[in-house]
Specification:
Helices cover 36% and strands 15% of the residues. The chain has 2 domains: 159 residues, 3-Layer(aba) Sandwich (Rossmann fold); 169 residues, Glycogen Phosphorylase B (Rossmann fold, 3-Layer(aba) Sandwich), CATH 3.40.50. The longest helix is centred in the middle third of the chain and has 15 residues. Helix 2 packs antiparallel against helix 14.
């Protein structure tokens, strides 16, 4: 005789929970929670120029905005594409906020007072005055980090600047040189040394079969620009461009074979060398060999060739076997995607539980609010 039993199926609680945790409903719930639970970040600065430092500061805040609700002054991020072409538009709150979770500023004076639960100073290079009451510094590279360690003894976090590789291309190269940097000359002789680059080019162009030298930069010191123009008066193959667009500069980079960068030459003060040198990254992305002075952080960028004396440039050019596509590949280490991948580890180092929890959620669900 066969006995038929009525079987009662009991729910598998473990499996059901697992399914729910992986469901879109749960994921969307957490994402909505995160939108309203982001810790607050107040950003203030009086040093937001349109040079490399100002752009880098904006990039840092943009990268952190994935993890924080950003509060800042009006128009800080509403600049023209001429200066912020690497930063997509994103939402910021313009109203005032008291006692934010994170306070970030750019300060060269050491006089700015902390305003947040955690206080961070963006440092291009540490001054002699250590910011009082600040917990962390953010800097661009190991070169600046080492200086912060030595001068301030403060924990520092590295967030390098980035560039969009899609904006740069490898063109049909000719045996030419390019220099990119603002024209200035301080009373103590500090400058980007364009006049010395011009002098080197005039003396060596025939030997190295160089056909052209273009110099780009904003005329911070018109008298210095005039001085450089007098040097090239009888050399039509050398041109100075003080009002070129970013597109024009990129087009020239694409066609040039060598970038010459002499910032730091003849300088003994470490704050007068090239601390990062984003122009070297732009050069790499264009398949153009960056030849930079060996001082500072620029020479530490993979793919650059460094010189101590100007005569070293001849050897570098004569021995150059760099592949244009290899150079571009090295430059992509500073793409938005590569730098963005560093940010979760940076945020992890901030010692507040809400921030760490928020970061964990974002990793689990690969949340992207852009």
């Amino acid at each position: 005789m066969t006995h038929k039993h009525n079987c009662i199926t009991t729910p598998n609680i473990t499996n059901d929970c697992d399914v729910f945790l992986k469901s879109n409903v749960f994921k969307s719930t957490i994402i909505e929670f995160m939108k309203f639970s982001k810790p607050s970040l107040l950003f203030e600065s009086k040093h937001l120029d349109h040079a490399g430092g100002g752009t880098h500061s904006r990039q840092i805040i943009y990268l952190l905005s994935e993890f924080f609700t950003v509060y800042c002054e009006k128009d800080v991020f509403n600049e023209s594409e001429k200066y912020n072409e690497d930063i997509p538009k994103f939402n910021v709150c313009e109203q005032d906020i008291q006692n934010p979770d994170i306070y970030v500023t750019v300060d060269h004076s050491g006089k700015v007072k902390p305003k947040g639960k955690i206080n961070i100073v963006i440092s291009f290079y540490p001054s002699n005055k250590k910011p009082k009451g600040f917990d962390y510094a953010i800097c661009a590279n190991d070169f600046v980090k080492r200086a912060i360690d030595q001068k301030w003894g403060m924990k520092s976090l590295i967030i390098p600047p980035f560039r969009n590789p899609k904006l740069y291309k490898i063109g049909e190269k000719n045996n030419s040189c390019i220099a990119i940097g603002n024209f200035f000359l301080d009373s103590d002789g500090f400058s980007k040394n364009q006049h010395l680059l011009i002098d080197w080019y005039i003396k060596n162009k025939a030997t190295l079969n160089l056909i052209e030298f273009k110099l780009f930069g904003f005329p911070n010191n018109p008298n210095y620009v005039d001085f450089c123009k007098r040097l090239i008066k009888n050399h039509p193959d050398i041109t100075i461009h003080t009002d070129a667009s970013r597109t024009q500069i990129r087009d020239s980079l694409a066609k040039s074979k060598y970038l010459l960068h002499a910032h730091g030459y003849g300088r003994k003060k470490p704050d007068q060398v090239e601390h990062f040198g984003i122009v070297a990254v732009e050069s790499l992305l264009s398949g153009t060999l960056p030849i930079v002075h060996q001082s500072g952080g620029c020479s530490e960028i993979a793919g650059t060739k460094s010189f101590k004396e100007f005569s070293d440039i001849n050897r570098i050019i004569e021995e150059n076997i760099s592949s244009e596509h290899e150079l571009r590949s090295l430059g992509k280490a500073y793409s938005f995607e590569e730098i963005r991948a560093l940010i979760p580890k940076v945020v992890d180092q901030l010692s507040t539980t809400p921030i760490k929890q928020n970061n964990i959620f974002r990793r689990i669900f690969k949340y992207d609010n852009n």
